[in-house]
User: Which sequence fits this backbone?
C-alpha cells in the first residue's frame, strides 16, 4: 500500500506527478492555507506532509497526527517546525538546502543595490511624473563598490553573498556562531569579526543566520545604535531576527541610513511604520522566488519525502 501524504500549498504539477508514483496524494492546488484545525484533520490518517514555511508543525499538531512519519519542508529554514517534538515521535524532518543559495544571494544583493541607489524611491518619482530634468545633486545614493560588507551568518547563502561581493570590490567581514574554516574564508575572501566590530565597521550589513530563540531580536535597538549612521541593513533571512519596531524607530531617527527587507516579524502583516518611510525597500519574502529555484525546492522536498516514507535515508534529513 502506498503511503498517504498531503501537500499543504500549491506546487508545480510535475512535483505532484512525481509524488503520485510513490504516494497517495492529497494536494492543495487551490492554495488556500489550512488553519491549524484543518491541517490536523487532513493529517490525522496521513504518513507524510510536504509543507511550507506558512505551516506551523508544532507539538500540539503532532499529537493529533498519530500516523505521521515524515515532514518535508519546502524551505531551507525550518523554524516553522518543532523539530525536537518530531524527533521525540520519530518523525523525520527534511529541508531544502543548497538549491536556493544563489537565488537568495541574488535577492540580498538586489536589496543592497536598491537601497544604496534608492531605486524604489526614484521609480515612484518617475511614475508620479515628478521628474522635470537632470540635476547634478539629484537623488544621490551611496556606493556599493569598495564598501565594507558585514555578513552575519556565513552558511551556504552567506558564502554565496560573499562571492558576489568580490565582483563589486567590497571588503567582506562576517560574524558567525562558529568561525568557518580558513579554506572557506579564503575562498570567499571574508574575514571574521566579532559582532560588535562588524556592527561598527560595516557600511552594509546582511543578515543570513537562521532564526531560532538564540537569534530572536539579535538586531535590536542596542545593536542598531552600534551601527554607523550611514549603515544600510538588509534582512534576507527571517522575520524575528530583527526587532522591527526598533528598526522603524532607527530608520525614522537617522540611527542608520536605510534598510532592505524581504522578511518581517509576523508576516504577511508588517509594522505599519515601514510604510511611512522612504528609506526602506520592502519585498514580500521572495528570496528564493525564481521559477527554476522554486521548482528545485519543491522537487527536493518531494524527493526527501518519498525517501523518508520508503525506508531510505532522505538526502536532507534535519533530525537523523
Ligand atoms: C525561505 O525563506 C527558506 O527558508 O527557504
Assistant:
Amino acid at each position: 500500500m502506498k503511503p498517504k501524504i498531503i501537500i499543504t500549498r500549491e506546487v508545480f504539477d510535475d512535483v505532484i506527478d512525481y509524488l503520485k508514483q510513490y504516494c497517495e496524494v492529497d494536494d492543495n492546488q487551490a492554495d488556500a492555507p489550512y488553519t491549524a484545525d484543518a491541517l490536523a484533520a487532513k493529517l490525522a490518517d496521513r504518513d507524510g506532509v510536504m509543507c511550507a514555511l506558512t505551516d506551523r508543525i508544532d507539538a500540539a499538531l503532532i499529537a493529533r497526527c498519530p500516523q505521521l512519519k515524515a515532514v518535508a519542508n519546502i524551505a531551507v529554514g525550518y523554524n516553522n517546525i518543532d523539530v525536537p517534538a518530531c524527533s521525540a515521535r520519530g518523525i523525520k524532518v527534511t529541508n531544502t538546502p543548497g538549491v536556493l543559495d544563489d537565488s537568495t544571494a541574488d535577492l540580498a544583493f538586489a536589496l543592497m543595490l536598491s537601497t544604496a541607489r534608492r531605486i524604489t524611491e526614484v521609480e515612484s518619482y518617475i511614475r508620479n511624473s515628478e521628474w522635470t530634468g537632470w540635476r547634478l545633486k539629484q537623488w544621490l545614493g551611496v556606493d556599493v563598490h569598495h564598501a565594507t560588507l558585514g555578513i552575519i551568518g556565513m552558511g551556504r547563502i552567506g558564502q554565496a553573498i560573499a562571492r558576489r561581493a568580490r565582483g563589486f570590490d567590497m571588503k567582506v567581514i562576517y560574524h558567525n556562531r562558529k568561525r568557518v574554516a580558513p579554506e572557506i574564508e579564503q575562498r570567499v575572501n571574508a574575514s571574521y569579526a566579532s559582532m560588535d566590530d562588524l556592527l561598527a565597521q560595516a557600511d552594509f550589513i546582511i543578515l543570513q543566520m537562521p532564526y531560532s530563540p538564540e537569534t530572536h531580536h539579535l538586531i535590536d535597538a542596542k545593536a542598531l545604535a552600534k551601527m554607523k549612521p550611514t549603515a544600510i541593513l538588509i534582512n534576507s533571512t527571517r522575520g524575528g531576527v530583527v526587532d522591527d519596531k526598533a528598526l522603524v524607530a532607527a530608520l525614522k531617527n537617522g540611527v542608520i541610513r536605510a534598510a532592505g527587507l524581504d522578511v518581517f516579524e509576523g508576516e504577511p502583516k508588517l509594522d505599519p511604520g515601514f510604510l511611512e518611510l522612504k528609506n526602506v525597500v520592502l519585498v514580500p519574502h521572495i528570496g528564493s522566488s525564481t521559477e527554476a529555484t522554486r521548482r528545485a525546492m519543491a522537487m527536493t522536498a518531494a524527493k526527501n519525502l518519498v525517501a523518508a516514507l520508503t525506508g531510505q535515508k532522505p538526502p536532507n534529513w534535519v533530525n537523523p
Summary: The longest strand covers residues 148-152. The pocket of glyoxylic acid is lined by residues 53, 75-77, 100, 287-288 (CB under 6 Å). The chain is about 35% helix and 15% strand. The chain has two domains: 4-99+291-309, 101-282.
